[in-house]
Known about the structure:
Bound molecules: coenzyme A
Helix content: 10-25%
Number of strands: 9
CATH class: Alpha Beta
Radius of gyration: 15 Å
Amino acid sequence: MKIxxxxxNKKQFLxxxxxxxxxxxMIDKYLERGDxxxxxxxxxxxxxxxxxxxxxxxxxxxxxxxxKYQGQGYGKALMNYIFDYYSGKCKTMFVGTGDSPLxxxxxxHCGFKISHRVKNFFTDNYDHPIFENGIQLIxxxxxxxxx
Length: 147
Ligand SMILES: CC(C)(COP(=O)(O)OP(=O)(O)OC[C@H]1O[C@@H](n2cnc3c(N)ncnc32)[C@H](O)[C@@H]1OP(=O)(O)O)[C@@H](O)C(=O)NCCC(=O)NCCS
């Protein structure tokens, strides 16, 4: 398994990024200023994007594993890699997600705790309703991990 920081042509990972954030112009808001990490095990398995929001404050904006490789430890391996990568400079890492039983348990599993909510984030910022597991996402739920 190998994890690489990607410096150029970040859009090459759009198909994976869209699994976690289905509207391309929302991805465009953070992709260029974000640090992109790609996990390869033979071929590409997972991707994540981390932005610096303030001194010591980082945000995991996107993390995704190709569907057929999910549940095999790649997401967690990538998460552990970025925790090491930012150790020393990161005091708090945030992650925002829909109020969904598909993602919140994964973040809890990786040491994140519920922080706060941004009301109506999905309905205010996306140009179409977003559904996960048949449930419409309305608020953004932020989780945090303190270092
Ligand atoms: C969320 C996601 C990135 C997790 O990646 P992954 O490679 O499948 O994760 P892992 O296999 O490393 O799982 C890590 C641990 O979390 C657990 N986990 C993963 N998804 C989970 C879920 N939905 N509910 C509960 N636990 C979960 C796994 O069981 C595993 O536990 P273990 O370490 O005890 O074995 C992946 O499911 C994905 O790409 N989903 C679609 C995109 C997405 O929704 N991204 C997040 C948007 S905010």
